[in-house]
Specification:
Layout: H1 2-9, H2 17-28, H3 38-51, E1 60-68, H4 84-94, H5 98-106, E2 108-116, E3 128-129, H6 147-166, E4 169-177, H7 181-193, H8 197-200, H9 209-226, H10 233-240, H11 243-257, E5 262-264, H12 267-279, E6 287-289, H13 296-305, H14 321-339, H15 343-346
Parallel strand pairs: 1-2, 1-4, 2-3, 4-5, 5-6
Helix pairs in contact: 2-3, 3-14, 5-14, 6-10, 6-11, 7-9, 7-12, 7-13, 11-12, 12-13
Length: about 350
């Protein structure tokens, strides 16, 4: 499995700057002062360069929501009980969650993947059944996963990217659901950025000051226990990560290998991006950071990836909600690129 992962990673190459220049040349020919539409132009140029098409069609959009439970919840790090994970999966499938609403707003599909929920779902549900385990183990006391389980989670994400591309999806986003997953994301963020745990750890679902201090202590204890090597991203994911975070990392790798952009959501999704970027540094060329979460560690992660968020809305829901808004902005940029008249077409004088 690791050999196949290496072969996929070898296909991920940086975006060609020549294509960025071609796209910008068209943008500069449109009836506006050069650069006057700011980051909408940047989004359009990025999409053109990733796809290497001079006039790409508006893409079909899909948000893949990975769901899994976390054994570290036993340490009392969350304001919500673990059963909320499976209850929210049913909510996603009924179309009643925040991500369903915002996906409908921007015309995106929502796919829900069970990677490790501690619940047996009915097989007939419109759910992608890919359960690797019934949640991770408590990483404050033992590794969250085996290396094989971490690799399986990555491969589920890669598989979902391959299936999406085969179905004609042009832009992907990753969502998450898993009570306790901000604890795992903070642990991964501290390891991969080298910053103190306190700089990465936030209130998650809304814990109080005392629980926040306890959460930091739990993560610090876990990092002392495992002493992982940040240059071994799969081992790090296995030690303190989450199955859904592995799925997100795999989706990012699969999207980049297929030359599709991945619109990045918040804190959990960006932890997955850190894993993916350690495996294949060029994936950052294929990432669009939709927003900066209210979680304090999110900006630390974005800085490490050298990504600039499009929005700062104080959001911290997860699920892919911020990424859905980012998809709408990407489409706006592409519509400008495709549909706005050039100076020559409109008979408008250009800048002297």
């Amino acid at each position: 499995m690791e050999r196949a992962l290496t072969e996929l990673i070898d296909r991920i190459v940086p975006v060609d700057a020549t294509w960025l220049a071609k796209a910008q040349a068209r943008l500069d020919s449109l009836t506006k002062p050069p650069g006057s539409l700011g980051r909408l132009e940047e989004l359009a140029a990025r999409y053109v360069a990733i796809r290497e098409e001079e006039l790409p069609a508006l893409p079909r959009k899909r948000v893949v929501v990975f769901a899994a439970d976390h054994g570290v919840v036993a340490e009392g790090v969350s304001a919500y009980p673990q059963e909320v994970t499976y209850q929210m999966v049913y909510n996603f499938l009924r179309g009643g969650a925040g991500i369903n609403v915002l996906a409908r707003q921007v015309g995106a599909e929502v796919e829900v993947v069970d990677l490790g929920v501690n619940h047996d779902f009915e097989p007939e549900l419109p759910l992608v059944h890919r359960k690797v385990a019934y949640g991770t183990r408590n990483f404050a006391r033992e590794p969250a996963m085996s290396r094989e389980e971490a690799l399986k989670a990555l491969w589920v994400g890669i598989e979902r990217a391959k299936e999406a591309v085969a179905a004609g999806v042009g832009v992907l986003a990753a969502g998450d659901m898993g009570i306790g997953n901000t604890t795992a994301a903070a642990a991964l963020g501290a390891i991969f950025t080298g910053r103190p745990v306190g700089a990465l750890t936030g209130r998650g679902t809304g814990i109080d000051d005392q629980t926040l201090r306890h959460k930091v202590a739990v993560i610090n204890r876990a990092l002392s226990l495992h002493r992982v090597d940040p240059h071994d991203p799969v081992g790090t994911l296995a030690a303190v990560g989450g199955l859904e975070i592995g799925g997100i990392a795999g989706l990012i790798l699969g999207a980049a290998a297929a030359r599709r952009p991945l619109v990045l959501d918040g804190f959990i999704a960006t932890a997955g991006a850190l894993v993916a970027a350690r495996l294949a540094p060029a994936v950052t060329d294929y990432l669009i950071a939709a927003h900066r979460s209210a979680e304090p560690g999110h900006q630390v992660m974005l800085d490490a990836l050298r990504l600039q968020p499009l929005l700062v809305f104080g959001m911290r829901l997860g699920e892919g909600t911020g990424a859905a808004l980012g998809m709408g902005l990407l489409e706006a940029g592409l519509r400008i690129y495709r549909e706005m008249a050039t100076f020559a077409e409109a008979g408008v004088s250009e800048k002297a």
